[in-house]
Structures are given as C-alpha cells and as structure tokens.
C-alpha cells in the first residue's frame, strides 16, 4: 500500500458528495433556464431535456472506460484532478450560458467528466484490502445519498438569490474540491503497476471484450447492468408516482426524497460492511436483491402514504447490492487493471441510464393516460421487480472464482 486508506476515502467521499450535490443544486433551476434562454414552452423544455439527458448518458458511456484506462496509465490522482476541473468548467458554462447550445454543451461536459467515478473507485481498490472494499464502496455510495438529500434542498434556497446562483455555488464547491485534492489526495497506483494506454481497452466495446478474459466478470457486469436499470425506478419515476398514486404535493415529494436519501446513506454506513463481513459479497447482494424485489412489488400496488414510508425498509436492504457487486468486479481485476474494470462498471451503468427512461417511464406514461385500459401508476415498479428477479437469477448462476486465482478475503 502506498498510503493509508483514510486520505483517499475522505477525498473520494467528498468528491462524490459534491458531484451529487451539484446535480441536485441545478435541477430546480434548469427547466426554467431552458425556457427563458431558449424561449421554449414547458413541453418544449421537457422534450429538449430528454435529448439532453440522452447526450449526457452517451457521453458518460464513452468517457468512463477512457478515464478508467487513463488512470491505469498515468495514475488516479492526475485523472481525477483533470475530471474535477472539467466538472468545474461545466458549472462555469452553465453559469454564463446565454443560448440553448451552451446549456447542452455544459450538460454534455457533465457526462464526459462525470466518469471520474471510475478512477475514484479504482483509487479505493488500490489502498483497500479485498475484504474491506464493499464497505468502502458503500461509504462512497453514502456520499451520493447525502448529496442527493442536500443538493435539491440547497438549490431551492439559493434560487431565491437569482437563477444562476446555484451554478456559481456548485462551481465554488467543485473548485474547492479540486484544490483540496491537489493538496491532500495522494497517488494510489504504484509506478510498477501502471501500463500503457490502449484504445482497444479504452472504448466501451473493447472494455467488454477485455472483461471476457476474467472468469465471471461479464456475468457480474450484466448483473450490475440489470440492477442499475431496476434501481433507476426511484430517480426516474418517484415524483410522478407520488402524484399519480398518492396525490402528493411538491412538499411531500421533497420530504419523501429526503427520506429516501437519508435511508440510503445510513444503511450504506451502518449495514453494508457488517452484512458483507457476515454473508460475503455474493450473499449480501443476494439478500439485497430479494429485499429490493419485495420493495418494488410493494410500491407497484401501494396507494397510501404510510405504505410508501413503511417500504423504505426495503430501500435500506437494497443498499447492499451495488457495493457488493462492485467489490465482486474488483476482485476479478489485477492491480494493473482496477481502473479499466471500474470504467467497465461505469460504462454498464451508463447503458442502464440510457435504457431506463424507455423501459420505466414510457410504460408509466401509458398506464396513467386516458388510452390505458386501466390506471396503474405503479407499473414501473412492477417492471423493476421483474428486472431484479432476472438479475438475482443471473447472479445465482454466476460461477465463483476458482481457488487458483482467488484473492484473499470474503467469499465472492
């Protein structure tokens, strides 16, 4: 190990926290900014945001394996700091954008440099024993959960001081984090473990091809893809579902989102590490998927607020899944390929982000429209439950690593 994990964990946690906060900060402002700058109606702004989101997802899909491979070549520190500068540039563009084209450019930059998640995860793997990776990956996810809670609330307050204020605050936070990393974040990848950059590995399809060289890696990547697709049901449809199924006000939707974020953050910190230690990574992911499937099915047929909050227990259990799957992928990488494997993970999650709106939102739109044979706001959750079942089955049929190549640590 080059350094103790603590400085790395703190920096990565803060980075993911600020990324999530920045995302939440600008969301309350972006729709009206599009309408004003582009002279668009509300439905026109929504249509534009669909294509803008797709462009972001495609940018992340392409950039994630590139950043991961660059971090295997030049080290985690340089790539992460460059990515943070890119995120700061994204906020700067949005803060001064006077045309729709500049706003779209700013959001595409989010996709390009949001791939910093891959080298950040690789840095954790560099300095963490295999047994501890799931717990530390959970800490990173907790940072996202906290940011998911704080960002929208802070953005709603800041917009009172001007529609561009959230962008300037997000820029200040990203710049401060970059400066913090420049001072405090150590390089985690030993020089002797670095390898030449190759485009054959640094494109999404090349990363998938390379993954076939490691036992079970493609299967776990597919499980991660299915899980990402299912878990997107919350950010993609929760607000619409709250209105259609429960008649929630905007305030109630905000409170419920905060509750979801708090549950995720606390469960990542308090539950995941203990569960993985007791059950192993595969067992923890299995339990998490079972709980998630029950929760998704419950929300599919929930029609009262008390049911919605009671089912948050399933959200806590599902927090076991992603860190465990990430740790399973990490075990199948060598020290030289951690960045590439984390880039592969970011890439498959990007695919989920591209497919998610089509698989989850469109059926919900149909079953809440007059054309539907019956009204079913929870249909997206039913689809998520079915996808989770498929992920669970695929995980159960994924072979364990052979003893000859097993690293030390918990059961994979």
What does this structure look like?
The chain is mainly α. It folds into two domains: 185 residues, MFS general substrate transporter like domains (Growth Hormone, Chain: A); 198 residues, Growth Hormone, Chain: A, CATH 1.20.1250. Helices cover 77% and strands 0% of the residues. Helix 3 packs parallel to helix 6 and helix 13 packs across helix 15. The two termini are 22 Å apart. The C terminus is likely disordered.
Number of DSSP-assigned strands: 0
Let me know the CATH homologous superfamily of the largest domain. MFS general substrate transporter like domains
Oligomer: single chain
Q: Which class do the helix and strand fractions yield?
A: mainly alpha
Inertia-based shape: globular
Strand content: under 5%
Radius of gyration based on Cα positions: 21 Å
Mean pLDDT: 78
Beginning-to-end CA distance, first to last residue: 22 Å
Briefly note the CATH topology name of the largest domain.
Growth Hormone, Chain: A
């Amino acid at each position: 190990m080059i350094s103790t994990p603590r400085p790395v964990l703190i920096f990565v946690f803060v980075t993911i926290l600020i990324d999530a906060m920045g995302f939440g900060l600008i969301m309350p402002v972006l729709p009206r900014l599009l309408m004003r700058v582009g002279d668009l109606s509300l439905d026109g702004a929504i249509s534009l945001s669909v294509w803008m989101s797709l462009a972001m997802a495609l940018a992340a899909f392409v950039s994630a394996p590139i950043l991961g491979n660059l971090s295997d070549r030049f080290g985690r520190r340089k790539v992460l700091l460059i990515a943070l500068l890119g995120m700061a540039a994204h906020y700067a563009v949005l803060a001064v954008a006077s045309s729709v084209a500049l706003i779209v450019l700013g959001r595409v930059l989010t996709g390009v440099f949001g791939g910093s998640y891959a080298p950040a995860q690789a840095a954790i793997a560099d300095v963490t024993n295999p047994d501890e990776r799931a717990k530390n990956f959970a800490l990173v996810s907790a940072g996202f959960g906290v940011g998911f809670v704080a960002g929208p609330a802070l953005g709603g307050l800041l917009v009172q001081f001007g529609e561009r204020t959230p962008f300037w605050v997000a820029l200040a936070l990203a710049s401060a984090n970059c400066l913090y990393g420049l001072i405090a974040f150590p390089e985690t990848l030993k020089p002797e473990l670095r390898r030449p950059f190759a485009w054959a590995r640094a494109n999404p399809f090349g990363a998938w091809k390379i993954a076939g060289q490691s036992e079970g890696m493609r299967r776990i990547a597919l499980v991660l893809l299915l899980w990402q697709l299912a878990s997107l049901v919350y950010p993609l449809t929760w607000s619409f579902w709250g209105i259609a199924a429960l008649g929630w006000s905007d305030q109630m939707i905000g409170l419920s989102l905060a509750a979801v974020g708090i549950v995720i953050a606390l469960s990542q910190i308090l539950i995941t590490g203990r569960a993985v230690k007791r059950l192993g990574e595969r067992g923890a992911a299995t339990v998490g998927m079972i709980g998630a499937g029950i929760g998704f099915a419950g929300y599919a047929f929930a029609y009262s607020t008390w049911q919605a909050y009671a089912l948050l227990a399933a959200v806590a259990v599902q927090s076991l899944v992603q860190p465990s799957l990430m740790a399973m992928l990490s075990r199948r990488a060598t020290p030289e390929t951690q960045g590439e494997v984390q880039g592969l993970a970011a890439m498959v999650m990007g695919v989920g982000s591209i497919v998610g709106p089509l698989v989850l939102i469109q059926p919900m739109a149909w079953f809440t429209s007059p054309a539907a044979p019956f009204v079913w706001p929870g249909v997206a959750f039913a689809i998520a439950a079915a996808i989770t079942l498929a992920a669970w089955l695929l995980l159960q049929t994924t072979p364990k690593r052979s003893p000859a190549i097993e690293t030390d640590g918990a059961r994979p």
